[in-house]
Design goal:
GO terms for molecular function: O-methyltransferase activity; protein dimerization activity. It comes from Viridothelium virens (Speckled blister lichen). InterPro entries: COMT-like, COMT_C, COMT_dimerisation, SAM-dependent_MTases_sf, WH-like_DNA-bd_sf, WH_DNA-bd_sf. This protein is of the alpha/beta class. It has three domains: 52 residues; 75 residues, Arc Repressor Mutant, subunit A; 198 residues, Vaccinia Virus protein VP39 (Rossmann fold), CATH 3.40.50. 49% of the residues lie in helices and 13% in strands. The protein has 17 helices and twelve strands. It has a seven-stranded mixed beta sheet, with helices on both faces. It starts with 12 loop residues before the first helix and ends with a strand.
Length: 405
């Protein structure tokens, strides 16, 4: 006779009830005082109930097949499935018509749509008919959001599929060489940074640029409302230098949020980036070509130097180079260093942020915890004065100053 199987999975009803009560409690607290942290508590409580009600084997399969959901989304974007669903949320389209509009077969379209429906990405209001969900309508039809997903799947997830051989060869430690990352390894490149590898593939570069445009716009708004930039304003002073600021999305949002802010703002990036055009006029910002790895900061004595989503792209040693190049311009001027980055809690970080760190591991970058930020900055004689927005937001702003000798 075959050996007996495992006992049926039967979680305690009392335990499930206690977890459901925690959801109600978190929801009530959020209702009385809405905040990003409050939302995270609701998410954590619902996840705890979901996990408690899921058996070990189901949990294992859910983890193992997570990538397959992303694969279905990637196919759906490629075949324009989301774009061909009725824009009116109250309307649906039958499978044969959807397949025809996607230049596909009913069999193939069914397989993709079925995966999307069962994972709550689109709706099936009646048998054989499909419609947008709120998520697919608001997010997955937006070209920049589609580009971001293509970038994550085609580039970052592709790099993760090589984690096994990469770390077996290089050792199980955080990559320290930005020119030999898992992303470069996955495509057979050596001595080439992630950004250099993108230039070899125009399609991936386009997806990256479009996708980052979406995140930059969102991140610029978060940054502008997280830190009290108006306090920097002062007539006749250089009040803010946006280092590696691209086309000026962050400065544009800061200008829009604080239109009466006085003083000069400076936008810095590589010359070819600035030459492609910026979002701000000459009367709003000064342009300054700058390579933060190869040059000492040329603008001395600014009230603040702002670096948004720069450090997470690089390992610690590369970040130390950036910090060393900032110090001469800040020394003796009481300047502030403002880093807009993800900041993980040292204990029980949000799952989203912990996984973003694994995402950055692909390119030898790093999302850092409070302690890791403190250690990095202290290593170059900077001291953290305050972390603004450490409340569950996508990004916080670390305010630091240079220790004077």
């Amino acid at each position: 006779m075959p050996p007996p199987g495992p006992p049926p999975f039967q979680p305690s009803a009392d335990y499930l009830t206690s977890l459901a009560a925690e959801i109600s409690k978190s929801t009530a607290e959020y209702g009385s005082s809405p905040s990003p942290n409050g939302l995270q508590k609701i998410i954590s409580a619902t996840q705890a109930l979901n996990l408690a009600a899921t058996g070990p084997m189901d949990r294992l399969f859910n983890l193992a097949f997570q990538a397959h959901i992303n694969g279905a989304i990637r196919i759906a974007i490629g075949m324009k499935l989301f774009d061909n669903l009725p824009s009116d949320l109250s309307q649906s389209i039958p499978l044969p018509a959807l397949a025809s509009q996607c230049n596909s077969t009913s069999d193939f379209t069914l397989r993709i749509a079925r995966a999307l429906v069962t994972n709550h990405l689109i709706e099936s209001p009646s048998p054989g008919a499909y419609a947008h969900s709120t998520v697919s309508k608001l997010v997955l039809t937006v070209p920049t959001a589609q580009a971001l997903f293509i970038h994550i799947f085609d580039t970052m997830t592709h790099g993760m599929t090589y984690f096994g051989p990469y770390f077996a060869e290089h050792g199980y430690d955080s990559p320290t060489d930005a020119k030999n990352s898992p992303a470069a390894f996955a495509r057979g490149y050596k001595d080439m940074s992630f950004f250099e590898t993108l230039t070899r593939d125009p399609e991936r570069l386009t997806a990256f640029n479009m996708g980052m445009g979406a995140t930059n716009a969102i991140g610029a708004h978060v940054a502008a409302t997280t830190y009290p930039f108006w306090e920097l304003g002062e007539e006749g002073k250089t009040v803010l230098v946006d280092v590696g600021g691209g086309r000026g999305q962050a400065l544009q949002e800061i200008r829009r949020t604080y239109p009466d802010m006085k003083g000069t703002m400076v936008l810095q990036d590589l010359k070819y980036v600035l030459d492609e055009g910026t979002l701000l006029g000459e009367d709003e910002v000064e342009l300054c070509p700058y390579n933060f790895f190869e040059e000492v900061q040329p603008v001395e004595g600014a009230k603040a130097y702002f670096l948004k989503s720069i450090f997470h792209d690089w390992p610690d040693d590369s970040c130390r180079t950036i910090l060393r190049n900032m110090k001469p311009a800040m020394r003796g001027h009481d300047s502030r260093l403002l880093l807009c980055e993800t900041v993980l809690q040292d204990e029980q970080p949000i799952a989203r942020d912990a996984l973003r760190d694994i995402n950055m591991l692909v390119i030898a970058g790093k999302e850092r915890s409070v302690k890791q930020w403190d250690d990095l900055l202290q290593s170059e004689h900077f001291v953290i004065e305050k972390i603004h927005g450490l409340d569950g937001r996508m990004s916080a702003i670390i305010e630091a100053r240079l220790k004077e000798d």
